[in-house]
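Researcher: For the record, we're logging two predictions in this thread. I'll number them. Prediction 1 follows.
Model: Prediction 1, sequence and structure:
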Amino acid sequence: MIHLFSAAFDLILPRQIAGGCAVEEIPAIPVKELTDEETAAHVVIREILHTPTIQSKSPKIAFMFLTPGPLPFERLWDMFFQGHDDRFTVYIHASREQPVHVSRYFAGRNIHSEKVVWGKISMVDAERRLLANALKDPDNQQFVLLSDSCVPIHNFDYVYNFLIFTNVSFLDSFEDPGPHGIGRYSDHMLPEVEMQYFRKASQWFTLKRQHAILVTADYLYYTKFRLYCRPGMEGNRNCYSDEHYLPTLFKMFDPNGITSWSVTFVDWSEMKWHPRSFRAQDVTFELLKTMTSIETSVHFTSDEKKKVLTRPCLWNGMKRPCYLFARKFYPETLDNLMHLFSNYTSI
């Protein structure tokens, strides 16, 4: 729950008498004093979170593709979407070149796009641009961010029911005490963003409508990350807003409204700068079956301890497989994926 705080208190609790003995005076916990900008932001965020979302009679999922150009898996997504025209919408942010579409579901769905540079705030700008365009349709209730290397690993009905019939956002989030987590925090973010709330995540989210509105409405906290979470900061440190802005924002304001795990699978087991990419020879029924069966979310800390953090994936309180989508797949995997699609999506 969000509280609006007034000036900080420095009070002392009055002495009390218990059985004739004086009880030691205990200082009250000081309350953080908010700046004017924070007070305004808290009011807006509180109103967004406390105002029930208008329920659509025909709820849809917004599939938002963030890509530099071509979408190599359009034909696979076309198979996924077929027969469900009234239950989804597609939005495409192509930052370098406008793709030539081979699927009717993608034709005419490009939004105004700007250049995106990996690791910079332009990545977050593109995400917010996609959300703003998708929010124009009042029937869109869940907002899925996808890359050009993402593929579906369940059929449409499974994905639709999984996302529409729950009231949380599937946003990755964990506390990393190492140099690639807390080590990226800057004191310049104070007073608005405190270190205790700083979190790390994969950028590939699924947000419920209420949270999508919150992200597009935010200016104060977005600005802090734009200014003080970027590559090439003091001390030779790099901070990447797309990995920290959203998990930190929701840790501050609605930690119970997110799952802290993403519905998009990615393989970090090689412990490199980038996750594993799958080639044509990697794509087998067994691989895809394994992806659809995983029931535990895994994170790796970047400190010396290299801890492996695990948590069960819960859907409406029940343990369920975690993932609806997967990345990163090379374009060469398309034929194998299409050949296996009807088999692995029926798992």
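Researcher: Logged. Prediction 2.
Model: Prediction 2, sequence and structure:
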Amino acid sequence: MARCFQGWVFLLAVLVLALSTPCSHAHLKHKKFKTKTGVYLSPKFVLEPGLSSSKYFYNVHFPKGHIALKSFNAEIIDEEGNSSPLHEVYVHHWLVERYYARKGYVEPDQQLPQQLSESDVIWLRNSGMCQNGALGQYFGLGSETRKTATHVPGHYGIEVGDGKGVPEGFEERWMLNVHAIDTRGVEYDLGCTECRCDMYNVSRDPSGQPLPAGYAGGLTCCPDGAKCRLKQGFGGEKKNHYLRYTVKWVDWSESVVPVKIYILDATDRMNHSAPTGAKHNCLVEYDVEKSCNATNGCLDNKWAKITMPTGGYVIYGVAHQHIGGLGSTLHGEDGRVLCSSTPIYGKGKKAGNEAGYVIGMTTCYPRPGSVKIKDGETLTVVSNYESTQMHSGVMGLFYILVAETL
């Protein structure tokens, strides 16, 4: 009887061990993380009626160490900490970029990234295919910033601060680019926010060359310091502003699954015949021509086919569009919809619900494992705008997070 009892005990122990192993593994993989939060302010920037301000702030406050970023949210506020409404301070964009800098190196004030010393700064781009310095940011939004979800779900995260590949004598830093336009008292709000060249009285590019034929508007015509035309006799005070940004993260561990950032551009025109492989010419901006006068059915459709070097599972997706945007869709090679993202337009006056402005973008959080991109798969990004009137300097970007494993 004793031997029989001992046998049952042994079998029970084996069974418990067998059942507990996968559960322990699952717990390790999906354990709860302690999320940390930091709230920071950018350096001050000063606005006055009609002014376009595009400032570059280097080595800004940011969480340190080997971490997984979980979200980045931001908004422009005034001196008293109040949210600045879009009908006064239009958020063209804010961008967050990562780089290595030589220890002790001080970035010259307000120089463009490409003007910094190449021997002292190494830029760390996302995994997207755009070249020539375009769209390398880790995070970035525009007027939709207050109503667009940015959180990375579950046990996924954007890995930074791992120390791998850091050259001796260098350290990780972060840069903010904040582009805001003060539209108080301007003649034509949309003309100013779409950076129409005639509204800013700009006829030459930064190098002094005449603008390309047909260039109606875009970033070239609303650089830092440019002034949009004001109504006759309008006067207004200068005001101090800041970008208030909130970062959430968890400490890195084996339980976190890393995701890659891809930013796809509807203006990307791939050159497959390039001698060293496909080249990506991402224009970032484009114009929408007026095509009809109807109240509906006037549609401008811009699309691009982009081949992904590697695949994985889509964890998050969101598009970026300007006023006039009707939505953007990312398709797989077989035509299936990977993600659709639509602008949310405001209906009021308060900050976060400004009538006529894009105040948010809908996002995609697919069920893990349900949306997969194959290695080498060619995706199609489609950007739709209404075309009852002309729009200049619009964008059709798609930001996705992709995990190689679940």
